[in-house]
Amino acid sequence: MENIYANISAETVKVLHDPNIETQDVTSSGMAGRQQFDNRVASDFEEEQTKLLTETDQLMGEIVNLQNKLVFMEHHFKMGWHHFGSSFYLFSTVEKTWEQSKQDCVGSGADLVIIEGREEQNFINGFNGMFWIGLSDRETEGSWKWVDGTPLTIEYWKSGEPNSYGGEEDCAERSLIYSNTNQSWNDVACGQLKLGICEKVAYP
Ligand SMILES: [Ca+2]
Ligand SMILES: [Ca+2]
């Protein structure tokens, strides 16, 4: 104990014993300060709590989204869809006309495939067979458009195609591939019977 008192400075002792300093005021001021400190701590705590609750809500939302995505993907894999990039693809097993194949795709929430670049072209080329793709010049001869209305810009026609053979070839197929995988499209008559490739957005 003596050591503790020894640490109290002479000035402190003087203040404590000075009759001119109103003890009551000093005590009130100390309590008010303590109250302010407590209020600030409580306010910080509430702020932190609100922030954590918001973050928890966001995380729960993300978990629900991921669970929904998982269910969506599992469902499509079971139905035979393939996942590539940001799309699902279904390679049909029944030969139909271009329009019938398109309608089948639409019926399953998709459309005939739109090939937007080399990677997707390579992916499509990984499957054997002659498949309808979502490309035609049915509206205006020679003006090839995808099923979503966008004009053809990147193209992978076979050498000598599209040739509109007999003047009646308005729909495009991914034909059999020989040597160059960048040349696998051919225009054929839309009424021919072929398999189709459907594409839909994987994460709507
Ligand atoms: Ca595509
Ligand atoms: Ca042709």
From TrEMBL:
The UniProt record lists the keyword Nucleus: no
CDD domains in alphabetical order: CLECT_DC-SIGN_like
Pfam families linked: Lectin_C
PROSITE patterns: C_TYPE_LECTIN_2
GO molecular function: carbohydrate binding
Domain C-type lectin: 84-199
Keywords: Lectin
Protein name, entry field: C-type lectin domain-containing protein
Highest classification ranks of the organism: Eukaryota, Metazoa, Chordata, Craniata, Vertebrata
Gene: LOC112245203
